[in-house]
Design a protein that fits this description.
The structure holds 2 protein chains of 2 kinds. Chain A has a single domain (35-41, 63-242), classed as MetI-like (MetI-like fold), CATH 1.10.3720. Helices cover 71% and strands 0% of the residues of chain A. Chain A has helices spanning 14-37, 39-43, 74-110, 112-127, 130-140, 145-173, 175-182, 187-223, 235-242. In chain A, helix 4 (112-127) crosses helix 6, helix 6 runs antiparallel to helix 8 (187-223) and helix 8 (187-223) runs parallel beside helix 9. Chain A is elongated, with a radius of gyration of 24 Å. Chain A starts with 13 loop residues before the first helix and ends with a helix. In chain A, 35% of the residues are buried. Chain B has helices spanning 3-10, 51-59, 84-87, 102-105, 112-123, 129-139, 155-167, 185-200, 212-218, 236-241, 246-253, 310-318, 356-366, 371-380, 397-409, 427-444, 455-461; strands at 13-22, 25-35, 40-44, 66-74, 77-78, 95-98, 173-177, 204-209, 221-226, 229-235, 270-281, 284-295, 299-303, 325-330, 339-342, 415-419, 447-452, 464-467. By secondary structure, chain B is an alpha/beta fold. The chains are: A mainly alpha, B alpha/beta.
Amino acid sequence: MNTVTPEVMPDARQLPSIKASRIAGLALFGVLGCAAVIGPDLVGHDPATQSLLDARQGPSAEHLLGTDHLGRDMAARLLSGARLSMGLALLSILSAGVPGALLGVLAARSGGWTDRLLTAFADAVLALPGLLLVLMLAAISPGSWWALYVGISLTLWVEYFRYTRQRARVVFAAPQVEASRMLGLGPWLILRRHLIPEIGPGLLTIAAFGAATAVTAVAALGFVSVGIRPPQAEWGVMMTELLPY
Amino acid sequence: MNTITKELMTTTVAVSELCVHVGSTQLMGPVSFAVAPGETLVVMGETGAGKSLIAQAILGTLPEQLHSSGVIEVNGERVDNVAAHIRAASWGRQIAALPQEPWRALSPLKRSARHVRETYRYVAQHADPESSCARVFEALGLVGAEERLPSELSGGMAQRVAFAAATAGGAPILLADEPTKGLDNDRRARVVELLSEVPRQGGTLIAITHEVAVARALGGKLIVLKDGQVVEQGDTLSILAAPGHAYTQELIAADPSSWPQTASATPGKVLLEACELSVVRAGQNLIEGLNLSLRQGERVALLGPSGVGKTSLLDTLAGLHAPARGSVKRADGLGPRAVQKLYQDPPTAFAQHVSLDVSLRDAARLNDTPWSELEDLLSRLAVPLSLLARRPDAVSGGELQRVALARALSARPSVLLADEPTSRLDPITQARTLEMLAQIADARRLGVVLVTHDAHIAERWAHRCVSLS
């Protein structure tokens, strides 16, 4: 270690490239988000309105992506499917991520029996194939949006829990936290200063993958006619419907 | 034999006008030296002076963004213009490197004998690596440690295993980078003895150290580096006896053995009292029946080799670890924040992802210490306020330890427990940091417990010394 900290010059060449990738990512996400939120209204067609005379048309100025076998506008159906899938994905990230992370912190902080019980429960959920659990819940209440949502959240929270617990145990045992406690920092400040900056980026990564898993799960269940039902425009349902053509 | 070959045969490592640059900035040099078989070269200077760059340039392991100029010859052959993968062929065979903190250089999953056996088998291509390995383990006093994992070895043993692994290839040149870093006096002496065997058996030793005692014990030739510049070069013992340059004098004066003796204190009332204290951690009986009292304005050193339980004892005194038997009593009126701790590795004592400013302001706010008081304190500790905008990993160890001291003082403690606060700092910084700690402790009449493995520090810095063994 030096006696005097050398002035660190930021590397001018590296900064723009980081920014560029960040901007590119945010732009893509923005386009997807806009498409899902305002897309269906922009298209100007109702995704469920049938018009048998216009069935199975190719792309045209009237129907940007053509129509399906019942004459429904494909662009409208695709975008409203995106709205459904992304909405469900975002909701399940929240309902899986928030309790998962909080329980992880709780397990790491309290240790002992609380930790053992929570870990055992998480492991038990992990032992069940996720899709099977969702399938079971969906079968209890077929076509219900809620069953899907609860099922997906129940399978996804384990990842957040395990990741948070693991990292939080390390952070809580570190001298930095001991020093802060001795100085009188309360639990909330310790979370904010020590834990959240440490695990935040990791949780965001899990959330991104979790969202993808949720979208796939909804589509997969729709495809096997367990999840969302026709005439609701949903990607999996659309695939099954259009498979013969 | 003509004169040129003769000259080539008499030097094993010859370096002339060696400089190391990053981009167009010169980090180190120019350095020139030549060492022959049976000779020792010691490179001394504080960390960051560019000592390790010399070793890396000779080995050919400079980081990619750095490049060297000048001529480097190893065993009479110019190597500085040879491609790295060709130079790699000489590693272990002609030139070996003993890494810093070897317990980190050993593979955590390989048993110690395997590290050494593999060098014999693959580098030296011995016909019988098993027996060569057994011989060297016996010679180094490592019998019984063959099947242990590096995590089960003590620091000194790990150092010897790394030494055996590095030298098993039969390389006549050994580069040792801070070979005694983090070792206590006893083990340091043993490592120095091990290293001085190398020139005695006709090898060449290039040792990099910041410890005056190690340089003195190794002897040979000496190069003193400061900020990448050679400030003094010549015979080790005569330079150390009569240093010409102010920096060398400072370096020698910073060695704990030449510190002035602290005047005795006039201790006030008792702050902490340990009665018949026993400390157990991880099922191990570390300390038994210890009686210790700490008074106002008193500096007590806890001295003992690594692994004796110094840190656990400190945690028990701080109330962070429950004693197995006995008790630790705090004087009446000492609140939970009246005892503060300083840590061995300052970067790990701060929240990693927030600036120092945030950490300090939290501490000041929660303890009702006005920010201006903390600013005064920092300037007395010679910490520039501009540093506070940085994260802990972007500040040097010495400065960070002083920031940690300021942070601890913001809680207005009566007792400061310091867990080897300077063992990772270089000697000049160490001397300066401990001096400031002493000044502040005296001014505020703090009771300080300093854990150290350096007997000189314990003896000269503290008023009272408690040896644990």
